[in-house]
């Protein structure tokens, strides 16, 4: 076990009221049960994944929440990253559904109907805009095939409620903006036509299939299969191996409890299971290797040989 911290264990999340921040607060509860990990400092960041990678490079945080679609870019120094960052994987945090919504009274009934429509895709250089490009690109569509509106979650929801746009890309469930929107207007979650979801999943290794369950939001009257991005906890290669082992071991031990502390962690236990059959590749998204401390924790937990 690592020795007691002389400084806080610093975890970067996202903006106030964000899903990453609420997950970070639940994670703090679990980690601080180990005296060697106290105190835990959960901090906000304006641009979430991108900023957390840069803060890890600058040694401003010890661990950071990131969407897995960004970590390979950070490792390779690809835009928007100005340098290669020696990230290391620690643990999955959740698989957050990415889903397109429309007003229930609209003529849009599936993802295929988005062509030619006005779609809120998130801020212009955000992860959500990147997801929109990736998902629709896998289906043969580009941003030239519809009218992108670069609006964040709250602004996009307001625009949809007013009827100023036709659809919005949302993530994950639950999130406060989506819950509030579904209380204001009747919405429809757009399903994928037969075969299209498999196209997306086959093209993008950091996506997973998830089922949005009936009743997850008002108006969702049946289970619907969707794409989900795996969000992860990462660190830097320089981070002490014992510290990473202790953090990883705490997450693994709490994989059934964390969903009770925060429903965003629902399905966490299942995200570790591929380690048993696929080995380290199950969690090494974008070519980012597991930290040696995480490897030790997974071996001790019997998840890796």
What topology does this entry show?
Elements: E1 9-12, H1 19-31, E2 40-43, H2 49-57, E3 63-67, H3 68-76, E4 87-103, E5 118-120, H4 127-138, E6 147-149, H5 153-162, E7 167-170, H6 176-184, E8 187-189, H7 196-203, E9 207-212, E10 224-236, H8 241-253, H9 258-261, H10 268-272, H11 274-278, H12 292-300
Parallel strand pairs: 1-2, 1-3, 5-6, 5-7
Antiparallel strand pairs: 3-10, 4-7, 4-8, 4-10, 9-10
Brief synopsis:
This protein has 305 residues and is α/β, with parallel strands linked by helices. The chain contains twelve helices and ten strands. The longest helix has 13 residues, at 19-31.
Order of helices and strands: EHEHEHEEHEHEHEHEEHHHHH
Strand content: 15-25%
Distance between the termini: 21 Å
CATH C-level class of the largest domain: Alpha Beta
Q: What about the largest sheet?
A: 10 strands, mixed
- Mean of residue pLDDT values: 94
Rg to the nearest angstrom?
19 Å
For CATH, the homologous superfamily of the largest domain is named as Periplasmic binding protein-like II
- Overall helicity: 25-40%
CATH topology of the largest domain: D-Maltodextrin-Binding Protein, domain 2
List segments where confidence is low: pLDDT < 50 over at least 5 consecutive residues: none
């Amino acid at each position: 076990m690592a020795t007691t911290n002389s400084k806080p264990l610093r975890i970067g999340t996202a903006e106030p009221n964000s899903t990453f921040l609420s997950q970070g607060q639940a994670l703090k509860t679990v980690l601080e049960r180990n005296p060697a990990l106290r105190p835990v400092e959960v901090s906000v960041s304006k641009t979430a994944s991108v900023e957390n990678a840069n803060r890890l490079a600058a040694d401003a945080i010890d661990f950071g929440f990131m969407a897995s679609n960004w970590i390979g870019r950070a490792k390779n120094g690809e835009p928007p990253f100005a340098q290669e960052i020696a990230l290391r994987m620690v643990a999955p945090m959740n698989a957050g559904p990415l889903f397109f919504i429309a007003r229930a009274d609209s003529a849009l009934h599936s993802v295929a109907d988005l062509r030619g429509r006005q779609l809120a895709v998130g801020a212009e250089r955000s992860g959500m805009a990147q997801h929109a490009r990736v998902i629709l690109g896998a289906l043969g569509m580009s941003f030239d095939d519809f009218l992108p509106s670069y609006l964040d979650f709250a602004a996009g929801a307001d625009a949809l409620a007013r009827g100023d746009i036709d659809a919005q890309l949302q993530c994950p469930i639950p999130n406060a903006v989506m819950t509030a929107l579904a209380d204001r207007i009747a919405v429809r979650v757009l399903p994928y036509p037969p075969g299209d979801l498999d196209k997306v999943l086959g093209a993008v290794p950091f996506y997973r299939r998830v089922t949005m369950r009936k009743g997850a939001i008002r108006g969702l009257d049946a289970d619907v299969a969707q794409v989900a991005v795996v969000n992860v906890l990462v660190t830097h290669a320089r981070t002490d191996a014992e510290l990473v082992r202790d953090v990883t071991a705490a997450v693994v031990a709490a994989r059934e409890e964390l969903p009770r502390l925060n429903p965003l962690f629902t399905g966490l236990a299942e995200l570790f299971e591929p380690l048993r059959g696929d080995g380290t590749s199950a969690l090494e998204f974008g070519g980012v290797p597991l930290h040696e401390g995480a490897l030790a924790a997974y071996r001790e937990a019997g998840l890796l040989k």
